[in-house]
Amino acid sequence: MITIVNYNAGNIRSVLRACNEVGADAKISSDPAAVAKASKIIFPGVGAAPSAMKYLKEMGLDAALQSAFKGGTPILGICLGAQIGLEESEEGPTKGLGFIPGKTIRFNLKDKSLKIPHIGWNDVKVTKAHPLLEGIKAGDQFYFVHSYYPNPASADNVYATSDYGNDFCCAIGYKNYFATQFHPEKSGRLGLALLERFDRWEGK
Amino acid sequence: MLSKRLIVCLDVRNGKLAKSIKFVDTKDIGDPVAKARQYYEDGVDELVFYDITASREERNIMIDMVEKAASQIFIPFSVGGGIRSVEDATKLREAGAEKVNVNSAAIKRHELITEISDAIGAQSTVLSMDIRRVEPTKEIPSGYEIVINGGITPIGIDGLWWAKEGERLGAGELVINSIDADGTKDGYEIKLTRMIADAVGIPVIASGGAGKPEHLYDVLTEGRADAALVASVVHYGEYTCRQLKDYLYGRGIKIRMSY
Q: Does residue B220 sit within a domain?
């Protein structure tokens, strides 16, 4: 059973529907106790990091997520769930959950004809093998909507990049936590396949 | 680098496909969700449901349809037609639409764009505009005028001005629908599309006139559009989404090919 964390950060029902589509057993919850003892967690979210962190704290979900992470529960972060998985976000600035050392930063593009937010389909280039990225080939595209992206301190935690003006990190991971800046739930068959792999992943 | 997008528009009336859409494969007639699913599997990058329902009561049928579509198609889709308030937009978002398209209500009350953009984000706020070619005047210096009521009523607003104003008010994307090209299958209005794409900093979706794959190529290159919207050219079965994308890819357009 996948527990999808609900903390008032965007429409997360699309994640639930995508889980249903791939036959993964999933439910939405905002209960810290349920999150802390979940067998698997999807941590989605769209919006601003400061208000998201504020909600997580108010609801006691930050501690629940941290305890699940320490306990080895497989966690998949999506979008904001990647951005606040790092120690800090430039947005605010805000302190993140700190699963991975590093900082979430805003696009700083030299080419002023490129628009922020970065919205649409873009290539995802796998830079380091990971069970959740299995089968993704050169030229495969995923759907993005964001102005910030996670920038881990160590390249060891970077699993994929995309190119918008310059290369930026779009998938991060450490132990049982993995997170994508793109939206698997909106990325057609390739995105659904990633969710299906997460459903089978044991966090190793 | 971002890909160009192929978008299919489905006209919906009372939760069913509008009669103006005729299909070769008759088994899906009437059901917009089934048709959307078919296009999704055929590689369309985004879908638009355009609600041509007249009355307010019937809008709940649309909400219901959006919910169903959201559990069938796992790509972004937008909903347009009859959106008059933040409440309308929020309901559609909650039902699963990624974006909402506003059109005539925003012409009547410009602040609507800002209100919706503030509530659901600029990335989800699309301004659609129906435009026709006119003799340039002092009032319409660009020679393109905004029309409403399905293209029959001119309202004295310059198309280029309105596009820039829409961006300023908070729209995250523009749909440029040429009334002159619409239904001709002779190609998009390249000049109009390019004029607006060059003047704004947000993505532009070209609409109206697609009859052949070359037309899409032309508007995505010369017309500088970020996306090409099609309707009858796929509804009538002349081309599949895959065929259109294969053609564009073959001519060097960056577009999503693994789906």
A: yes
**Interface contact A141-B94, CB threshold 8 A:** no
| B11 included as an active-site residue | yes
Residue B254 near residue B4, CB atoms below 8 Å: yes
**Residue B119 belongs to domain spanning:** 5-250
Q: Residues near A85 by Cβ (< 8 Å), separated by ≥ 6? A: A43, A77, A96, A97, A99, A100, A150, A172, A177, A179
Does residue B25 have a pLDDT over 80? no
**Between chains, do B98 and A185 touch, taking CB under 8 Å as contact?**
no
pLDDT of residue B29: 57
Q: Which two tokens stand for residue A196?
A: 């299906």
B259 in any annotated domain: no
Cross-chain CB nearest to A14 (options B5, B40, B96)? B96
For chain B, say whether A51 makes contact (Cβ under 8 Å): no
Q: Is pTM, for the whole model, over 0.90?
A: yes
Place of tokens 């409440």: B87
Average pLDDT over residues A129-139: 97
Task: Judge: B2–A118 Cβ closer than 8 Å, yes or no.
Answer: yes
CATH number reported for the structural domain that contains residue B236 in this entry:
3.20.20.70
Predicted-complex ipTM score: 0.93
Omega before A93 within 30 of 0, i.e. cis: yes
Q: What is the mean pLDDT of residues A191-202?
A: 98
Is the pLDDT reported for residue B105 higher than 90?
yes
The domain total for chain B is 1
A47: its two tokens = 């919006």
Q: At B43, is the pLDDT very low, low, confident or very high (cuts 50, 70, 90)?
A: very high
For the four alpha carbons of A116, A122, A123 and A127, in that order, the dihedral sign comes to positive
A·B CB contacts under 8 A: 71
Compute the distance between CA of residue A6 and CA of residue B32 in angstroms, rounded to an integer: 30
Residue B15 domain flag: yes
Q: Find how far residue B252's CA is from the centre of its chain.
A: 24
Note the CATH architecture for domain A2-200.
Answer: 3-Layer(aba) Sandwich (3.40)
Q: Tell me the two tokens of residue B192.
A: 């109009």
pLDDT of B54 reads 57
Helix (H, G, I), strand (E, B), or coil: what is residue B105?
A: helix
Asked whether residue B255 is assigned to any structural domain, the reply reads: no
List the single range of A119-133, B10-24, B48-62, B144-158 with lowest mean pLDDT: B10-24
Question: By the 8 A CB rule, do A4 and A26 touch?
Answer: yes
Q: Assess whether pLDDT exceeds 80 at residue A126.
A: yes
Output the average pLDDT for chain A.
Answer: 96
Q: Is the dihedral of CA A27, A32, A34, A38 positive or negative?
A: positive
Catalytic pick among B45, B51, B88, B130:
B130
CA distances from B11 to B47, B49, B179 (A): 11, 6, 16
